[in-house]
Amino acid sequence: MNLRDVCPDKLLTAKESVQKIKNGSRVFIGTGCGEPQRLIKAMVEDLSIQDIVIYQMLSSTLSKYVNDENFLSRFSIKLFFISVLMRQAAFEGKIDYIPVYLSQIPEIFENHEIGLDIALIQVSPPDDHGYCSLGISVDITLSGMKNADIVIAQVNPEMPKTWGDGMVHLDEIDYLVEHKEAILESLPEMKNQKVVERIGHYVNRLVDDGATLQIGFGHLPDAVVPYLSDKKNLGIHTQVITDGLLPLLKKKVITNKKKSYLQDRVVASLCMGSKKLYDYVDNNPIFYFKSSEFVNDPNVIAKNDNLISISSALEVDLTGQVCTDSKGYLFYSGIGDQVDFIRGSAMSKGGFSIIIIPSTAQNGKISRIVPHLSEGAGVATTRGDIDIIVTEYGIAEMRRKSIYQRVMELARIAHPEFRKELIEQAKKRHYIFPDQLPPTTQDLLFLDQYHHSLKLSNGKNVDFRPLLPSDEFESRHFYYSLQDDSIYYRFFNKRKVFSRDMLQKQWAQVDYRRNMTIIGLMQLGKRKQIVAIGSYAKADTNCAEVAFLVKEELHGMGIGSYLLEILETIAKENNYKQFSATVLAENRKMLNVFQKRYPSAKFLRSGSGEVEVEMPFI
What we know:
By secondary structure, this protein is α/β, with parallel strands linked by helices. Helices cover 27% and strands 24% of the residues. It folds into three domains: 3-178, 3-Layer(aba) Sandwich (Glutaconate Coenzyme A-transferase); 193-428, 3-Layer(aba) Sandwich (Glutaconate Coenzyme A-transferase), CATH 3.40.1080.20; 447-616, Gcn5-related N-acetyltransferase (GNAT) (Aminopeptidase, 3-Layer(aba) Sandwich), CATH 3.40.630. The chain contains 21 helices and 34 strands. The N and C termini lie far apart (79 Å).
């Protein structure tokens, strides 16, 4: 469509268009990589334009001018999210930050809590029916445009056309400026690849086939996504599409076939990445771009079953408070979409949220898991909203946990150099008991090879993994749930009390090599409960003493035999040649398990009613 034939009266040069901006105007600018660069440049270069308030999310082009005193005397910048390029200006107080949830910004425009005189946007050329596309920037741009008195659009043939709600008719635009230029790109920064790889490994463990994902702002979530390449039929409902998703889209890892809401579509609000990504999105009906008040609405998010939110943070305190938008008193990014998606995922059937964060900052000098947030740091996500936190040292399950349990979970996934100090600081704050033992300073990544799963005859699964310090309370519940006979067979006495001291020593004595404890867990609602515990402990150089317990209602389902097999595999790796056990002669079930696993085992009965069992490995 030739604009000169259709609406010649609307067609202006960039210089002419910005003369429509009166002094004192409130100007909205389209978001991020979709911003109209030529219009911004023309506005700044017109020195007659004075006393302008600019509203934008993820500003880029303005960063070229923000250090110019003349610019700052003419323009006041208010950002809903601070981009990397504007971060230093924020630190120096040259721009203003509006902390608000992305889902609420369109309503703020509509209700005129923030009035807009001018909207500067960028669109694709119109189709034969006069419809342009907002392309990769629908988010809050659609609302900003609809609620401004005057809309000026840069018509750029490089802007991708996207499906969804970003179609804008020429009748909705007051002035048009034809100008072709490359769309801004947002390329990932280089990260510590080892940290990214390890965090990606743990995130992979948490994401099941068929899940629907949200990927938060930031380079770390984007860098972690490719580590989900072995998954099947993932779906996407997210604020921003980035290059990290591109390999999964091309490999058909992301199919959206299992989504319960808007099936077969990648639902998003904006796109920020490379030209390669923009070309893939262009006129591709798999992508469905909606405005932020829809995409980020927790009630809409919750319509997606098994919605997993993946976002990042600057620091996390031992109680689970998360800071994302400031470093102390210095505003660093923004609230963005994190809280919206965390709350939406919590309401989703089978959904949950993951906060990913490197364990340290400043080249390992400081811990990102802290006793308390830095002075001035803002709490973006409250301790009541948090589900799971992942560092390169493991997974901390926080949902519905007590402060004591949270401390133990987070100390375990902190950098080994900071774990002891975190425990000491927690004691000073009375978060944990004064006699609490600190977690091991070992790097426990190797324990992941000891994760197993067994499907029972009743269709339920039992997951097996090594015992961790944070299992102390759950193991207590396990022991107290057992019948007296089971306790007697295991401990050779009618033990009635399982003290904190005993349970602490149980995990503290596990070095995961010479001594090992494996627990079996079954899902109970949104919680996993321990249903079996098996251990071996060093007896001598070549022999380890073994014992295990299984909940009575699960006897005869092969759990004990499976536990024994796992423990033997680990024992062999640690150069043991055999197991030994002391069993009450009346405990026929235990003896049968040993006999079945070790046909050549020796059973030596003592006069006290006990049987000494020697079980050489094959």
